[in-house]
Design brief:
The chain has 17 helices and twelve strands. By secondary structure, it is α+β, with helices and mostly antiparallel strands. It has two domains: about 130 residues, Uridine Diphospho-n-acetylenolpyruvylglucosamine Reductase, domain 2, CATH 3.30.43.20; about 280 residues, Cytochrome p450, CATH 1.10.630.10. The strands form four sheets. It has a five-stranded mixed beta sheet, sandwiched between helices. A three-stranded antiparallel beta sheet has the order 4-12-9. β10 and β11 form a beta hairpin. The radius of gyration is 22 Å and the shape is globular. The N and C termini lie far apart (about 50 Å).
């Protein structure tokens, strides 16, 4: 597939679709219907227009559209989050930075996710996983999703800021309140999610600043992510300021908790629903029981890799990415006007039958070496598969997330068995990230 060339014919028509109600547009339908985008793509094609939160908005899906949007950032498009997200992340968060500033800060933050750093995180992840799994098995029956939220938050707090049992601390409770407002209607009243989240942000930054200042006073700032970032510098010797560290740590806590919980819960659900996949994974693990777990060993677990790839295709933790048109352009025969919001569709792309036959079925075999979707990093398919985004804003913690998912899966597959309990709703709530409506009720036993 050759790179899509931007066109400048602004006489082209606007994409099909409808704006809905004045100001509100189709916002309520978007938040309530997990298949909002997929239904409209069926009706209108790969590009359609609507109005969300008062903004004219374009939805695009498919490899070519994704490539066009993601390869022309800062030329035709720029990062653009909803107002509530921008306010709660903070203006100097990496997620909102652009241009050279974004590139410079990304290089510094990347130092916390290099292979050497990841290797150093493995023991902590394994210890916390072992702890939680033992408690779950002792209880027998658990509602797993809220438990997994605590699990991933504990790992994030320990590895990012050195805080033990983070989910049980005041920081952990405040963090959950902050998360709930990230994609909310931005009405800043004391009782609204957004208003509560704004207050939570202020408290979080105060606590994080105290942690940073304490760490900076130590002879050795430590080898967790915060310790590495305090010492990290770019090629000019520039380091992150305390204010930058606060916003970047808050972003990393979110990325290392919210989206990972969704992905791990999806893995647990799909493996429980497909016993043949579980058996295949357990057979593979039996081959590695007497080998030390290292990054190289994990690369050899090809069945596990394919299953996790399919989990992230079927239920991507982030359903879309936000951009804003900063210069009029034309794509797929349609005019894309300056100022309009664009959502490039991850979920709808992953469920596009032109790229993935029987897209609603769970089929890890589609990522086997001989399968058409196997080369997800090749030119043909890389924009058809983007659970971590693509381009200059591809998820910085991608390999950290994959590492945590694998270590969790390995421990559970080797030592435990879990079944879904009857009479529960397994449909997904999609905001802020996909998760089972009834919380994923399971019975867990030792193998």
């Amino acid at each position: 597939m050759t790179e899509a060339k931007p066109q400048l014919d602004v006489t082209a028509p606007l994409p099909p679709g409808q704006f809905g109600l004045p100001i509100l547009g189709e916002t309520l339908a978007f938040f309530r219907d997990p298949d909002f985008a997929i239904k409209r793509h069926r009706q209108y094609g790969d590009v359609f227009k609507t109005r969300l939160l008062g903004q004219p908005t374009l939805f695009v899906r498919g490899a070519e559209s994704n490539q066009f949007v993601l390869s022309h950032e800062n030329q035709y498009f720029q990062i653009a989050w909803p107002y509530s997200t921008r306010v709660l992340l903070g203006s100097i968060s990496l997620a909102l930075q652009t241009g050279g500033e974004h590139a410079s800060r990304r290089k510094i933050l990347a130092q916390a996710f290099m292979p050497r750093a990841l290797s150093g995180y493995m023991e902590t992840i394994t210890t916390i996983t072992t702890d939680y799994a033992q408690r779950w098995a002792e209880r027998g029956q658990v509602t797993w999703y809220p438990e997994l939220r605590n699990y991933t938050l504990d790992i994030a707090c320990k590895l990012l800021v050195g805080l033990d049992h983070g989910s049980a601390t005041s920081l952990g409770h405040t963090f959950e309140t902050w998360c709930q407002g990230l994609f909310s209607i931005p009405v800043a009243l004391p009782w609204t999610r957004f208003g509560k989240a704004q207050r939570a942000r202020r408290r979080l930054l105060t606590e994080i600043e105290q942690i940073i200042q304490h760490r900076q006073q130590q002879p050795d700032p430590g080898q967790d992510a915060l310790g590495l970032l305090i010492q990290a510098e770019d090629e000019t010797g520039d380091r992150l300021t305390v204010d930058e560290l606060k916003d970047q740590i808050l972003l990393l806590l979110f990325a290392g908790h919210e989206t990972l919980t969704s992905a791990i819960a999806s893995f647990c659900q799909q493996v429980a629903l497909h016993p043949e996949v579980r058996s295949q994974l357990q057979a593979e693990q039996a081959q590695f029981l007497h080998q030390p777990l290292t990054l190289d060993t994990l690369k050899q677990m090809t069945d596990l890799e394919q299953v996790l790839q399919e989990v992230l295709r079927l239920v991507p933790p982030v359903g879309a990415g936000f951009r804003r048109v900063i210069q009029d352009c034309e794509w797929a025969g349609y005019h894309l006007p300056t100022g309009w919001q664009i959502l490039y569709q991850i979920g709808a792309t992953h469920h596009n039958p032109n790229a993935y036959p029987n897209p609603n079925s769970f089929d890890p075999g589609r990522f086997a070496p001989q399968a058409s979707n196997a080369d997800i990093d090749g030119l043909t398919n890389r924009y058809n598969y983007l659970p971590f985004g693509k381009g200059i804003r591809e998820c910085l913690g991608k390999e950290f997330a994959r590492l945590e998912m694998k270590l969790f899966a390995i421990h559970l597959l080797r030592h435990y068995h879990w079944n879904l309990l009857p009479d529960q709703n397994l449909s997904l709530v999609t905001i802020p990230t996909p998760h089972p409506r009834d919380g994923l009720k399971v019975q867990i036993t030792c193998r």
